[in-house]
Amino acid sequence: MPAVARALSRPDLPRRWRLLALLALLLFLPLAARGQEAQDKVVRVGYQKYGTLVLLKGKGLLERTLKPLGYRVEWAEFPSGPPLLEALNAGAIDFGSAGEAPPIFAQAASPRLVYVANEPPAPQGEAILVAKDSPIRTLADLKGKTIAFNKGSNVHYLVVRALEQAGVPYEAVKTAFLAPADAGAAFSRGAVDAWAIWDPYLASGERSTGARTLASAEGLAPNRQFYLSRREFADANRKAIDALLQAIGEIDAWAKVNTDAVAAELAPSVGIPAPILTVALKRLSYGVQPLDAQTVADQQRVADAFHRLGLLPKPLTVADAVWKPGS
């Protein structure tokens, strides 16, 4: 409104016109402020190289969905769930996804974390691998052996459950806490006896090393993917959260029936050939949904297992971190 400001500065302007100009300026300022505020609203999304959120980023669907609500989107890539949720707790991002174990540790670190939604279980998407000629034939044979896995990840819980089922104390195995790339290298050269890993690294490891699956998560761990936010962000941006979940649902529906196209799209960023990714994608589950009682109970079992092992400083109540849409 430069013209109004110039008019107000004119000493020869009649008093009636000066008052009208001042009224116009007063009416304009709140509108301008609201417009600026709308332009400044942002959703910062943390994603990994594999999964629904990276597809959402590639399609630009979230930007189109949130723009009418006055939001823009910023994206941040993370190598795995634990650092992504550390960033979420720290306020560096507003929304992201991770497997079942990282949110447990994140909730222990901060009451700000909330579960917003989840995908159905995909137990075939993670497994414990051994070399094809390994003498390890059963889970009980892991006693005294070295298992490589990412600390605090979903496969950490898989290892815990697998050892429980086999009657092997957690302390009776040696753990090598390694990120997927380092764990894969150690497994390939025989520096560790077993490797607990998730897709698509699971599919890649099976193909590149000829590894044998000692046990998948079937019957041991659900292997769900969760969508998470901070309580204050979710409460203050309910329409944005609804739009996010709507966009994720649309991508899920497309990915479920376009496996080959998804594999081709992800291959360059993941660094894994499309045919191998196709194997991994067929083991995924699709259909974003709110957490139900069974999901909360399953997560509580994860929390209780880690607390029994002394990996959590105090007991957790998972239900306390479940966000209630519309409340």
UniProtKB/TrEMBL annotation:
<feature type="domain" description="Solute-binding protein family 3/N-terminal">
    <location>
        <begin position="42"/>
        <end position="258"/>
    </location>
</feature>
<dbReference type="InterPro" id="IPR001638">
    <property type="entry name" value="Solute-binding_3/MltF_N"/>
</dbReference>
<dbReference type="InterPro" id="IPR010067">
    <property type="entry name" value="ABC_SsuA_sub-bd"/>
</dbReference>
<dbReference type="Pfam" id="PF12974">
    <property type="entry name" value="Phosphonate-bd"/>
</dbReference>
<protein>
    <submittedName>
        <fullName>Aliphatic sulfonates-binding protein</fullName>
    </submittedName>
</protein>
<comment type="similarity">
    <text>Belongs to the bacterial solute-binding protein SsuA/TauA family.</text>
</comment>
